[in-house]
Amino acid sequence: MPDSSKLLDMYRQMLTIRFFEEKVFELYGQNLVPGTIHLYAGEEAVAVGVCANLRKDDYITSTHRGHGHCIAKGARLDKTMAEILGRKTGYCKGKGGSMHIADFSIGMLGATAVVGAGIPIATGAGLSIKLRGTDQIAVCFFGDGASNQGTFHEGINLAAVWHLPVVFVCENNLYAMGTRQTRVMLIDNIADRAVGYGIPGVVVDGNDVWAVFEAARVAVERARRGEGPTLLECKTYRLKGHSRFDPAAYRPKDEVSEWLKKDAIARFQARLLEMDIISEVEILRIVERVRENVEEATKFALESPFPEPAEALEDVYAAEEGTAK
Ligand SMILES: Cc1ncc(C[n+]2csc(CCOP(=O)(O)OP(=O)(O)O)c2C)c(N)n1
Ligand SMILES: [Mg+2]
Q1: Integer Cα distance of 204 and 143 in angstroms
Q2: Is 123 helix (H, G, I), strand (E, B) or coil?
Q3: What is the pLDDT of residues 201-221, one digit of tens each?
């Protein structure tokens, strides 16, 4: 069982992601976010439960819905918000935006707008770990929709055959844009596909952070021991539509209300209270502090300059050795 301070950290991180996403949505409504946004609210237990098992030098690859992965892996809120708002102080100097945040210093290899593209990148990271002989691991987050891409088959099969230290985490939120899983797959559990690659496939309640933590722990330990990859499917649900102001009218009302009852933060909070790990007063204090952190990050981002147009082509190609940038 994770100790109390670890559990409280996980609670704080889930709240941070939720409040951060609420703020991004608000800023988007004020026309302050260039491009589009895909919010992670509702799915916090997956990123937090998985990343709570990782070291700073472990790697993750992320998706278009990546803010939660960044925060859970230890990204700074101010630089993340600045990137989303297209500011020069952001992780990618404001030129990547919401879907292209990377920070190699914390092992965050990057979000990507190309669905399924993180899968072979995580396999590549796993191969690099194996060739260097370290005990790091790589975790790949991707959606149910991404599991129908060719990259899923190629990336996982190769990682399995080479026993690479990778954990493939499928965030099954039942929809790929407006397309329901049942319209494009005849299986209930995406984890069943693991059989085709000869690796363990595990299904977990993705709205139960404790369950995700435990399932990920087993997969992470297996990968670190050099025994190869696991496919971990986390059943979850996004609170908002796919992106921007998508009202998600394609989701039946009773389905939405059922999932709202399973909200990961409310459930975890109730459990921590029940176990006497936290008190109502401490909750109020944490909530207030987390809100302040998000406000500070937003202020930093809003006060930061935009990149200069002349800088647009900088950082596009790696500099050759021995030459200036
Ligand atoms: C290769 C590719 N095909 C299509 C798209 C358009 N697209 C963006 S997000 C998305 C749905 C992805 O669904 P899923 O993998 O379940 O992730 P979720 O959005 O549910 O987190 C699609 C089809 C894309 N960005 N890249
Ligand atoms: Mg999905």
Answers
A1: 14
A2: helix
A3: 999 999 999 999 999 999 999
